[in-house]
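Whiteboard transcription, Tuesday session. T.W. wrote the C-alpha cells on the left side:
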C-alpha cells in the first residue's frame, strides 16, 4: 500500500503538470472504487482550474474554486502524467484531462482507492479526525509521550494509528522503530520519554529520507513519471526476516502485531 512518502512523491510528480491548469473534462470508466464515484463529478469539476496540489495524510487534494478532488490511492493505485492520446490500458479507471494537452490518469488494479469531491475541506468526515502530520511541528516528543503514557497497545500499533499521527504505515513504522532502538511489540506506556524523543525524530528522518528517494517500490507503486522509488534499498528490517541485522549481525525475527507483520532485531531493539 502506498504510504506517506509514496503519496508525497505522487503529489510532487503531478504538481508541475496540473497546477493552474484548467480541467477540460474528467472521464470515469470505472465508478466502482472503494466508494462509488459520484456520477456528477465530471460536471462538478469541468472547466475548473486546479489552484493547488497538496496532501493530507494519504489523501491527495486537488483544490478548485469551490472544493477539492480528494484522491486516495488505496492499496495498488497510482497516478500517471501522460499525453491525452496515450492508449487506455487495463485498470485505467479515471482520467483528469487538462487544458495543456496532458492527462492525470488513475490506475488501480484492486479498486480500493477513491475519488471524492469534497466541499467541506478539513471538516470532511475522512479528514476531520486525522492526527497531526508527522513532518509538522505539531508532531513532537511532548505530544507523542502524552498519548503514549495512557496507551497499553504495542508502540508500533500506536504510531500506525492515523488518529494519533497520519501516514506512518507498516514499512516506515518498522524502520523508525529499528532506528530508535525500540521493539515494535513494547507497550506504548512503557516507552520512556527519552525513547519517545528518539522515535519521534526517527519517524521524521525516515519519512524525509523516503520522500527524497521517491518512496519504496515493493509491488505496485511507481511515481507519476512511471519510475520506481528507491528507499527499499535502504530498508533495515522491513521484509528481511531471518537475514542478518546490518548493525550487529543477529538474525532478524518476525512477529505479528495487529495482524501486520513486523521484523525487528532482538539485540538492537529493546
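and on the right, the sequence the group agreed on:
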Amino acid at each position: 500500500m502506498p504510504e506517506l512518502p509514496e503519496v508525497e512523491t505522487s503529489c510532487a510528480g503531478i504538481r508541475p503538470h496540473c497546477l493552474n491548469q484548467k480541467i477540460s473534462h474528467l472521464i470515469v470508466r470505472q465508478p466502482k472504487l472503494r466508494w462509488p464515484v459520484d456520477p456528477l463529478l465530471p460536471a462538478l469539476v469541468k472547466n475548473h482550474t486546479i489552484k493547488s496540489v497538496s496532501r493530507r495524510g494519504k489523501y491527495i487534494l486537488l483544490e478548485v474554486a469551490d472544493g477539492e478532488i480528494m484522491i486516495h490511492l488505496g492499496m495498488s493505485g497510482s497516478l500517471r502524467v501522460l499525453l491525452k492520446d496515450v492508449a487506455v490500458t487495463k485498470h485505467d479507471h479515471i482520467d483528469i484531462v487538462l487544458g495543456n494537452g496532458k492527462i492525470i490518469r488513475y490506475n488501480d488494479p484492486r479498486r480500493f482507492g477513491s475519488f471524492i469531491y469534497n466541499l467541506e475541506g478539513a471538516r470532511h468526515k475522512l479528514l476531520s479526525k486525522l492526527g497531526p502530520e508527522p513532518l509538522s511541528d505539531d508532531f513532537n516528543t511532548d505530544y507523542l509521550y502524552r498519548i503514549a503514557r495512557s496507551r497499553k497497545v504495542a508502540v508500533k500499533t500506536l504510531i500506525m494509528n492515523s488518529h494519533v499521527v497520519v501516514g506512518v504505515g507498516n514499512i516506515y513504522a518498522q524502520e523508525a522503530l529499528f532506528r530508535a532502538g525500540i521493539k515494535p511489540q513494547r507497550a506504548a506506556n512503557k516507552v520512556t520519554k527519552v525513547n519517545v524523543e528518539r522515535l519521534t525524530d526517527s519517524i521524521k528522518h525516515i519519512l524525509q529520507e523516503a520522500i527524497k528517494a521517491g518512496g519504496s517500490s515493493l509491488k505496485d507503486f511507481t511515481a507519476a513519471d512511471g519510475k520506481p522509488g528507491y528507499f527499499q534499498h535502504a530498508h533495515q528490517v522491513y521484509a528481511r526476516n531471518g537475514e542478518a541485522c546490518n548493525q550487529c549481525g543477529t538474525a532478524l525475527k518476525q512477529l505479528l502485531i495487529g495482524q501486520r507483520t513486523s521484523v525487528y532485531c532482538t539485540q538492537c531493539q529493546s
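Someone added at the bottom: The domain at 141-231 is CATH 1.10.8.50 (Helicase, Ruva Protein; domain 3).
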